[in-house]
Each structure stands twice: as structure tokens, then as C-alpha cells.
Amino acid sequence: MKATPAPTIITRRGYRFPPGPKSDLLWKVLRTRRPVQPIEFFQRLVRDYGDVVHYRVRRQDVIFLNDPEYIQEILVAQNDNFIKERTVQRSKLLLGEGMITAEGAAHRAQRQAANPAFRRERIPSYAAVMVAEAARTRDSWIPGATLDVSLEMMYLTLNVVARALFDTDLGDEVREIVAAINTIMGMYHFMLLAPAAEQLVRLPLPKVATFRRARARIDRAVARMIEEHRAGRRDPDDLLSMMLRAHGKRGEDRQLRDEVVTIFLAGYETVSNALTWTWYLLSQNPDAEQKLHAEVDGVLAGREATADDYPRLHYTEMVLAEAMRLYPPAWGMGRQALEDFELGPYRFPARTTIAMSQYILQRDDRYFPLPERFDPERFTAAAKARRPKFAYFPFGGGGRQCIGETFAWMEGTLVLATIAQKWRLQLDPEQKVEPEPLITLRPKYGMRMRAERR
Questions:
Q1: What is the reported pTM?
Q2: Cα torsion at 415, 417, 418, 423 (round to 10°)?
């Protein structure tokens, strides 16, 4: 057996770094005046330097990891030494101090307050809402019509979150909220990645005014939900009621707003994108589509799905899992160290940023042979057991793992099954397909598809 070569180690100020690009990347970007395409950049890092790479941005040390064991070490074993890195913190401009951006005791308190709504025994109670919204969407389509499936899935999943977790029917308001969210997403690079974003948001600029109007539209919807719950007109056992009890009837309104907005938006965005990419991939892989239809027809036999059907829709869930391997909604993530730390043979200083990408690792042929091929059989129990745990981590891991993961798996599977009972979706020949890595991995140009009745 050929021996594994010892890793190259670069010593600086008593720390031990892996190799990587020498120049400051921010200066390189400013000099070329071309935006960095992060996925392409990470692909180049792995190709040129391997699974552990060091580079610097504005004198900030950054380590890119493409190793499942090291990623597990950061997210699980050494989790207490890391906080979310600055790019995520910038999303406070929209989310405030919600569960995604909060740290330490504040994060733990929010998670504890929300936990009852996401316990495994509670999740089946949401199935009826998930199926009803999927059926409402399905039944509104016209044979032969061309739909923007990305928008259709946004409306559907936002309605599911509103009804299941907040006992609220958004009605026509859902379109205005989605439009506001899409406006903010379209300003991602301008508002959320700008070096001085916190100061920029206060300036009297047209784009900033657009951002503030979109954020205010989302806030109005959230404020209405909160007031309806305070007035006692909603389910006393839904998530928002639990959050109100944790905060008291009055007071802490800004913090409550932040927590509701975070779950409201994060709860729909991941599943919406996962479903959009799944419909696209099914349209390009007719054998998998046929297998999915056969399972759906066999399990449901023409009736509406229930929570009891979810564990029987094995292949449908495997299709969803494979779609999230190729197009993970959470395409990348980062952490920043509070104290000095070691990782394998390396030693890094406090404030080092750790970057990881689900998109890159989940297309690594060491763990997924022929990685560009769509193959749901990669997610049989036997196939999963052969891989390192963090070769596939679409919902993160450790203490910050997505609280709604179980909710999302059931929702995605039941929605796929409900719509696939009656429809096939074929990609519009003129549709350009390109993933855009914003806060989530969205289709850059939407996803126009033709609805064909089965």
C-alpha cells in the first residue's frame, strides 16, 4: 500500500498552517474588479491545494476544509470554541438576533423555546397541512401551462410554515412577502456582503431604501401574526404561542420579531429551493422519475398522503436527498474561532475563520463516485453506512444543526409525492439553469417548467 504523504505545514508566529494562495484575496478582487464566484473559488482551492487550505482576506486567516472528519471536529467536538463568521452575522440586517445569528446563551434559550414544536413526536401533526398546501398548489395548475416552479414552491412552503408553525393563513399576502424576500435576495451582494454593510443601511441611497421597504413588508406580516396571537385568536399550542409565553405577553417585541422572522424565512427557504432543484433533476432523469411515480402510485393508490405514508415513501425521500446532494440549499457555511485551536497537525490562532462547502464536498468522487450523475440509490441505508457522516451535511451539524431538519424531510417528501400523483414537470427548452450561491443556493434565472398531467 502506498503511504499517505505527510501534510505540508507552514510555520508562522508559532502556529502551523496548511499551504494556500499567497496573495490577499480582497486586494486581488479589487485589482481585477471582478466579483469572486465562491463555488468556483473553492473548487480551485481544493484542486490546487487539497482538503485543508489557508488563505487571507484583509489580514484575516481563513481555512477552507474539505475533509469530513475535520468538519465534524469543528461542528461537533470543538463546537463551543466557534461562533458564526461575519458573513452570517451580516444577515442580522434582515434577521436581527434570531436563532441563526444569535450566539451562546441567547441561541440556547431560543432553541430551547422552539424545541417542543420540532420534537419528533410533534412532526407528524404537521403532515395534513403540508399535504393540503401541496394539493392546493397542484390543483391550481393547468395542463400545458408554463410555470415558474421556483415561485410556486416558494408560495407553497411559505404557506406551510405560516399554517403549521404559526397557525396563520397568509392568503394573497404570500405573494407580497415572497416578492419582498426576493427583492432582498437580489440585493445580497450589495447589502449583505458590502464591507461596511451596517453603515450602508443607514445611507439615503435608492437601493438602501428598496431594502428597507422590503424588510418593512416582512415585518408587517410578522407583526400581524404576533398581534393575532396576543389577541387569543390562534392555536395556543403552536410555535408562535410558545414563543410568546417565553417572552411574556408584552415586552421584548424587537427580540420576538427577530426570532419569528428567522424561523418564518429559514423554515420555507431551504425546502423551497430543495423542491425546485428536485423537479429540475427529475425532468432530466426520466428513469428516476418513473421509479418515483411507481412508488407514489403504489403507496398512495390515488388517495391523499398522510403522516403514516411518509416512512413508506423511501424512494421519494432518496430523490430529495440526492437533489440536496447536488444542489444543497445551504451550499456553504463558516465559523470563527474564539480561542487558539488545533486540527490534526495544524494549530491556528483565535479569530481564524473556518469555511466549508456542502456543494464542494457532496460532489467529491471519493465519497460519491461519478458525482455529477443523479442517482438516488446513493441514499439506501447500506450506501449511507459506507460514507463518513459529514460527507453529506445539508442541514449542518452539531449544536447549530438546523432545528427544523425533521420537519423539512417530511415536508419535502410529502409535497413531492402529492404533486407527482398528478403531474410531470418538463423544463422549458429556453430556460437557462445556473445555481446562484446567495444565502441559499437558488436558481439564478428561476425555473420555468411545463406542467403535464400524468
A1: 0.92
A2: 110
